[in-house]
Fold:
Amino acid sequence: MEAAEAKKVPVPTIRRIPSYLRLLYQFQAEGRRWISATDIADSLELKPIQVRKDMAFTDITGTPKKGYPLGELIDSVRRFLHWEKLNQAVLVGTGVLGKALLSYPAFLDTGLEISAVFDSDPSKIGSDIGGFRVGDVAEAPGYVRENGIPLLILTVPVEAAQEAADRMMEAGIRGIWNFAPVKIYTPPEVFVQQEDLFAGLAVLTERTHQGG
Amino acid sequence: MEAAEAKKVPVPTIRRIPSYLRLLYQFQAEGRRWISATDIADSLELKPIQVRKDMAFTDITGTPKKGYPLGELIDSVRRFLHWEKLNQAVLVGTGVLGKALLSYPAFLDTGLEISAVFDSDPSKIGSDIGGFRVGDVAEAPGYVRENGIPLLILTVPVEAAQEAADRMMEAGIRGIWNFAPVKIYTPPEVFVQQEDLFAGLAVLTERTHQGG
DNA sequence: TAGATTGTTAATCGATTAACAATC
DNA sequence: TAGATTGTTAATCGATTAACAATC
Structure:
């Protein structure tokens, strides 16, 4: 017999929540104390019912007529995303995309902490990129194992992605943020978030040509 | 009275199709002539019925028992995405993300052509980034209007995104690929593809903590 | 031929939206 | 108080999956 499984939160809900959080910080900067689902929905062109349904997945409790207490709502949303604590990651692959992520200013307040950076290119190993000293990818698994790093940001070329992922999974990686435009195969306990620029480009070109 | 509207293709379908296309190029490199939905599904860990349903939105016709003729299928998929012809874009904002996109090697075969690059920072205007000479953003609307550029790649900071989008829409931009993590408001005829890194990060952190 | 595969029609599943009682 | 808003339960909508006849 099994314990009752907590119902999985729908992916579309998870994806909307960071946009709510950004808005909540804005409202906070404006000195607001209470925020209703209607306030959020109006700003993001969503329906209030959808915002309420999403918020119900966090542990916030609203107050009829007033909405949600802003400070508590921010905390609740951050806990939901696990952004209230540090999420340590190693980044493998210092091509243009890897470099961009290393210098991306907006990862503050997400709890994402890139704690080490690796590459296989001897001409890059030992160099400094965005304040990180680039290590030899051969040393990455040891680093991950010793420090119990849960997350891998994978920004290597397509041909190198599966091999790199395999080595890091052996070292205990639990989740992979994959920017290489290729499917990587993992056992069910390792989660892969595929970031596919071409999927986005496809939606752009297909939809822009509609009726145009 | 209206003409019968062509049924809109579901966004999840559009997003999967570039991954099919990459795989088809691989099969082509291996010398294959016929590809079945099962071949594709096995490689991508999808169900064959889903691949067949997706392919039905392109203009390919398969052959029972054999599958799809590979060359025709590639053409059909590229036409579906409008990647068989040039998709001209201007890029505004040469921060880390903009630079990365300008140097991103994988945009070949997508029909995306960045034809000009602009920034508002005087220290960047006139400089060379990834082989592009950076123009003054003030000149961007004129360039877009004169050349009939349909697409805008928006990689400016959050605070500048709406204003930049507004100027470019006045100049006739039809679709916006927005990398700034903020909602931009557009009239219904201008399509926005929001590329939100934080949405992806949210899925990664939420799912990786599940049961872990 | 027999069996693998397509394309179509129907069933299922899951997310969004609506309705509404409770309430500060 | 009256009205705006929450949280819950039900209805709708759209995408995925199943079933199956047609067929090379």
User: Anything to note?
Assistant: Chain B touches chain A through 56 residues (CB under 8 Å). The helical segments of chain B are 11-29, 37-44, 48-55, 70-81, 96-102, 140-147, 158-170, 197-209. The longest strand of chain B covers residues 112-119. The two ends of chain B are 57 Å apart (CA to CA).
